[in-house]
Design brief:
By secondary structure, this protein is α+β, with helices and mostly antiparallel strands. Helices cover 23% and strands 21% of the residues.
Length: 235
């Protein structure tokens, strides 16, 4: 898990703090130099509570001692919840069969100082029922070019397995799951959903935007700070 407000993305960058850079530096003390692989490459500013990282080491490891060592070095912004030895065929990214994200909005006239780092503050009242109806049409296998900044792996076709909006008091939350997501996809879906919630866009228009395969038809991109990688699934 990590709070991404302090980091410049996942991948190591010379002269800038990144999640991968901090983790690999901490691993050196127990394993020597290793290269890590992550299950989901998250945009700059996106958090995680269920990220999975894999690496190979020729050094025999006491995983409990390694976990304690990493957490001492990486706190408070990064936490390692568990370390498990796997066989050589496992890869954090390529072995994954699904990923689930959560996006949180604080929907009230006044912001909440205690959640401002992990939510998007939207002052106008939101019709969450309309937002939920809007994303229902995104479930299934579609070309998400309208909601993706660029193609990854040569295609913007993705299978969304679940997409639901719910309200809990002033908190409004999207839960969305797919095998994989393309760049900026969830944040673009959120921004378009909020336009629906504000009453500026009819829910029925969202599937139409999806079908146009045109990035200019979506309604911007929500702030990264509200997005969190919650879970990665494996066979």
């Amino acid at each position: 898990a990590y709070d991404r407000n302090e980091f410049h993305g996942d991948a190591r960058q010379e002269g800038r703090p990144t999640v991968q850079g901090e983790l690999e530096t901490a691993l050196v003390h127990r394993t020597g130099e290793v290269k890590t692989a992550v299950a989901g490459r998250t945009d700059a500013g996106v958090h995680a509570t269920g990220q999975v990282v894999s690496f190979k080491s020729d050094v025999p490891l006491d995983v409990d001692a390694l976990q304690r060592s990493l957490n001492r070095q990486l706190e408070p912004e990064i936490a390692v919840y568990d370390i498990t030895e796997v066989d050589d065929s496992f890869h954090a990214r390529f072995s994954a069969t699904g990923r689930r994200y959560r996006y949180r909005i604080w929907n009230a006239p006044v912001h909440d100082p205690l959640s401002v780092r992990i939510t998007w503050h939207v002052r106008e009242p939101l019709d969450v029922g309309a937002m939920d109806r809007a994303v229902a049409g995104l479930v299934g296998t579609h070309d998400f070019a309208s909601f993706c900044r660029k193609a990854e792996g040569g295609t913007t076709v993705r299978e969304v397995r679940r997409a639901t909006w719910q309200r809990d008091g002033s908190g409004v939350e999207l839960s969305i799951a797919a095998r994989a997501f393309c760049h900026n996809m969830v944040r673009s879906i959120v921004a378009t959903s909020v336009e629906v919630g504000r009453g500026r866009l009819d829910p029925a228009v969202v599937p139409e935007i999806l079908g146009q395969h045109d990035r200019t038809k979506a309604h911007g991109s929500a702030p990264a700070r509200g997005l969190t990688l919650i879970e990665v699934e494996y066979p």
